[in-house]
């Protein structure tokens, strides 16, 4: 259906709800689908930072790569120094 992803592997099917697809699968799909435009690394970094368990180092890697390759990342980079913990 529109809200699931079915992956066939090892002779079986694995079904994921669209809001529960493991991050590794999301990244594999996206990096295969996206072209080499440096701006796409900005989207990947935003995804890493907006996950329920933010991956700040991975977001930094994506955004710094985007900046090195010519994408405008200077307004995003300060977000990496924010406190994303959910504790009080």
What is the spatial order of strands in the main beta sheet?
Answer: 1-2
Report the sheet with the most strands, covering strand number, pairing sense and barrel closure: 2 strands, antiparallel
The tally of domains stands at: 1
Tell me the number of strands: 2
Q: What is the helix content?
A: 40-55%
Q: How many helices?
A: 3
- Report the end-to-end length measured between terminal Cα atoms: 39 Å
| SSE order, one letter for each helix or strand | EEHHH
| Rg, nearest Å | 15 Å
Provide the structure class: alpha+beta
Identify low-pLDDT runs.
none
Global outline? globular
Taken as a percent bin, the fraction of beta residues is 5-15%
Average residue pLDDT: 86
Describe the model.
It is a single chain. The protein has 88 residues and is of the alpha+beta class. It has one domain (20-81). It is built from three helices and two strands. Strands 1-2 form a two-stranded antiparallel sheet. A hairpin with a 2-residue loop joins strand 1 (4-9) and strand 2 (12-17). Helix 2 (39-50) packs antiparallel against helix 3. The chain starts with a strand and ends in a 20-residue tail after the last helix. 12% of the residues are buried.
């Amino acid at each position: 259906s529109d809200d699931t992803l079915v992956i066939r592997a090892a002779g079986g099917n694995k079904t994921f709800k669209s809001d529960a697809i493991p991050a590794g699968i999301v990244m594999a799909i996206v990096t295969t689908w996206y072209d080499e435009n440096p701006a796409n690394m900005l989207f990947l970094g935003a995804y890493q930072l907006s996950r329920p368990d933010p991956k700040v180092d991975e977001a930094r890697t994506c955004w710094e790569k985007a900046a090195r390759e010519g994408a405008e990342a200077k307004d995003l980079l300060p977000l990496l120094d924010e406190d994303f913990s959910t504790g009080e």
